[in-house]
C-alpha cells in the first residue's frame, strides 16, 4: 500500500498527527508512507520520524498556482491512499487531495463550512466533534481508513538527535545556567496568518510574569520563537532582566525542542511550541483565549489551561476565515483581560511538584 499524508497546515497540526501515524505504521508495517508538507519546520520534524519513508517539501504559497498545480499533478496515480491531517479545513487542501487521485481519500467532516470548503471531495470521512482532542480525531480518521477501532492513544512524537542535545547543553553552559537552576520556557509568539496574532497574551504580561518568577523563584527565563519573533523576545527579555532572561536563537525547530526539554515548566500561547513542549513531556501552562481547549490542550503531559472561560468562548473555528471578535465591549477580551496572577499561580504549582 502506498500512502501519502498531507500535512500542509502547520507544525502543531502535523505534530498532533504523529500518534495516528504511529498506529498507521503498526497496522501497515509494509506500507510506503510518505508525507507532503509545506513548512520547513514540519519537514525537519517529519524527516526524523521513523514511521515515514519520504518527506516531500513544496511551498505552495511561495510557488504560486501554476507551479503548484504542476507539482500536484506529478503525484497523480502514485498513491493508493491519501490522508489530509486534521485540522485542514481549506478548499485548497481538499482539491490537492482530490487531484492526487488516490482511490481512498481520507479527511474530516467539519461542523462548519464543510461543504463550502469542498470537504465532499474526500471519500473516507469522520465527523468533527467539539469535545474531542485533535489527536483523537486523527486516530479516528485512521481507524475509518483501516476499518478498525484503535484503543491506544500514543504520545506526540518528535525525535531529537545527540547534536540537538549538545546544542542545548552548550547554550545553557554559555548562559551559566546549571542543573540546580529553575528554568522556565516562554513562548510569547504564535502564528500570524488569518489574524491569529490576536491569540497572543500581551508581551508586557509575559515580562511581568518573568520578573515575578525571577524575583520570587530565582528563575532563569528562556524566550522561544522563530526568527520573525526575535524583536518580541528581545523586548520581553529586556523588560525582565538581562541577567536572568535569555532569547533563544536556535538554528532549527529540533534545537529549540532540545532546549525546551531542559525547562522545568513551559508557558505558552496557543502555538506550535506548546505542542512541542508536550512532545518533550514538559509541564505546560497554556494561555488560551478564543481557541477550544478540548481541541488543542497539551497532549499526554502535565498541563494547566489558564483561560477566562467567557460565555462567548471558544469562538475560533477551523476555517480559512480570519479570526474575528464579535464582542461590542472589549475586542478579544478573552486574552486581553487575562491577568498575570492566575498564570503565575499555575507555574508556582508546577514548581512545587
For the largest beta-sheet, the strand count, sense and barrel status come to:
6 strands, parallel
Query: Which value, in Å, is the CA radius of gyration?
Result: 20 Å
Arithmetic mean pLDDT: 95
Residues in helix, %: 25-40%
CATH class of the largest domain: Alpha Beta
CATH topology of the largest domain: Rossmann fold
Residue ranges: pLDDT <50 for 5 or more in a row? none
What share of the residues does DSSP label as strand, in percent? 15-25%
How do the strands of the widest beta sheet line up side by side? 3-2-1-4-5-6
Number of domains: 2
What is the structural class?
A: alpha/beta
State the distance separating the first and last CA atoms.
47 Å
User: What's the architecture of the largest domain, going by CATH?
Assistant: 3-Layer(aba) Sandwich
Characterize the overall form.
Answer: globular
The SSE order reads EHHEHEHEHEEHHEHEHEHEHEHEHH
How many helices? The count is 14
Structure summary, number of beta strands = 12
3D architecture notes:
The protein is an alpha/beta fold. It has two domains: 145 residues, Rossmann fold, CATH 3.40.50; 190 residues, Glycogen Phosphorylase B (Rossmann fold, 3-Layer(aba) Sandwich), CATH 3.40.50. The protein has 14 helices and twelve strands. Strands 3-2-1-4-5-6 form a six-stranded parallel β-sheet, with helices on both faces. Strands 9-8-7-10-11-12 form a six-stranded parallel β-sheet, sandwiched between helices. Helix 2 packs parallel to helix 6, helix 7 crosses helix 10 and helix 8 crosses helix 9. It is globular and about 60 Å long. The mean pLDDT is 95.
